[in-house]
Amino acid sequence: MDAENWTSRLQRALPVSSRALLLVNRHARQGQQSLLEAIHCLEQLGFDLIEESTEHPKHLSEVILRHQHEIDLVIVGGGDGTLNAAVDALVETQLPLGILPLGTANDLARTLGIPKSLNEACKVIAYGELRRIDLGLVNDKYFFNVASLGLSVKITQRLTKEVKRRWGIFAYAATALQVIWESRPFSAEIRINGKSYRVKTVQIAVGNGRYYGGGMAVAPDATIDDQRLDLYSLEIEKWWQIIPLLPAMRQGRHIEWRSVRALQGQEIEVSTRKPRPINTDGEITTYTPAHFRVIPKAVTVLMPPIETF
C-alpha cells in the first residue's frame, strides 16, 4: 500500500485535533523501541495524546474506562493478546480503535489490512475509514480473530514471551511442530444450526475474523464483518496426517480436506467430557462447555480504505 497516495486524497474520519488514549504494551515484541517513534508520528499527524502503559495488559480495560470521557479514540500498540485485553472496554465505551501492530503475529492487523510499517499504521489511524466489525463471544469472553481448543491451546501454553521475542513468527511454526508430534485426539460434541456432531478431533477452531496463529486463514472467504462464525475440526488419527494440511491452512483451503469438518453459523455449542481450556486471540481465557456467538458490528476500527489493500 502506498500510504502517501491515499492520505493526500482523503479527508480525516476524525477531527484533526482528536484526543487519543495511546496504550502500548511495553512487553510486545516491538513495544519499547517503537513507543517514542509512535508518539512522535501521531503528534505530527495532529493527535493530542494521553500516553499510558501497564505492565499487565489485563488492566487495559480499566485504563480505557478511566479516560473514556476525555478522549475521541483509543490507540493500542501491541499484538493480538493486547488488543483482546482491551476489547471489553471498547464494547462498553464504543470508542473507535486505532491499531499499531507491535506484536509477533498481528493477525487482527493482517485481517484489517493495516500495514506493518509503524509510520503507515499511524497514517491509517489519521486518514483511514471508520468501519464497524463483528466480534466473537465465547461464554462471556469477546474475541476478534479465533477461539479454539486442542492443539492451539498447547501451542499457547508453550509460547513464552521470551521465545516469541527471540524468534518472532518462526516461534509459532517451531512450537506447532513440537505440539503436533505429541498430539492425541479428544472427543467432543458440536451443536450448530439445529444439528449435533460427535467428533474425535485434535483441534476445534471457531473464527470470527480471517487470520490467526501467525497468518493462517480460518476459511478462504472469511471476513471480520460477514456476521458469521467459521468452525473447523481437525479429525486426524495420526500426528503426521496434519503435515500435508499445513500449507493449505495458510489460505484456509484445509476445510476442503476429508479429515477436516467445516461448519458455519451464528451460534455454536461445543462440549467435552471434561473441561478443556479455550484460547481466544492467543490467550487462554475460558473452558468448555462453550457457547459461541457472533456479535455483528460490535466495535468501530480505523482501517485503510478498501481499495488500498
What does this protein look like?
With 309 residues, the chain is an alpha+beta fold. The chain folds into two domains: 19-127, Rossmann fold (3-Layer(aba) Sandwich); 141-296, Tumour Suppressor Smad4, CATH 2.60.200.40. The protein contains ten helices and 18 strands. The protein has helices spanning 3-7, 31-44, 60-67, 80-93, 107-112, 118-127, 151-158, 161-167, 170-182, 245-249, and strands at residues 19-24, 48-53, 73-78, 97-101, 129-138, 141-143, 146-150, 186-192, 195-201, 203-207, 211-212, 216-217, 229-234, 260-265, 267-272, 277-280, 283-287, 290-303. The strands form four sheets. It has a six-stranded antiparallel β-sheet. A six-stranded antiparallel β-sheet has the order 14-13-10-7-16-17. Strands 2-1-3-4 form a four-stranded parallel β-sheet, sandwiched between helices. Helix 2 (31-44) crosses helix 6 (118-127), helix 3 packs parallel to helix 4 and helix 7 packs across helix 9. The mean pLDDT is 85. Belongs to the diacylglycerol/lipid kinase family. This is Lipid kinase. InterPro entries: ATP-NAD_kinase_N, Diacylglycerol/lipid_kinase, Diacylglycerol_kinase_cat_dom, Lipid_Phosphate_FormReg, NAD/diacylglycerol_kinase_sf, YegS/DAGK_C.
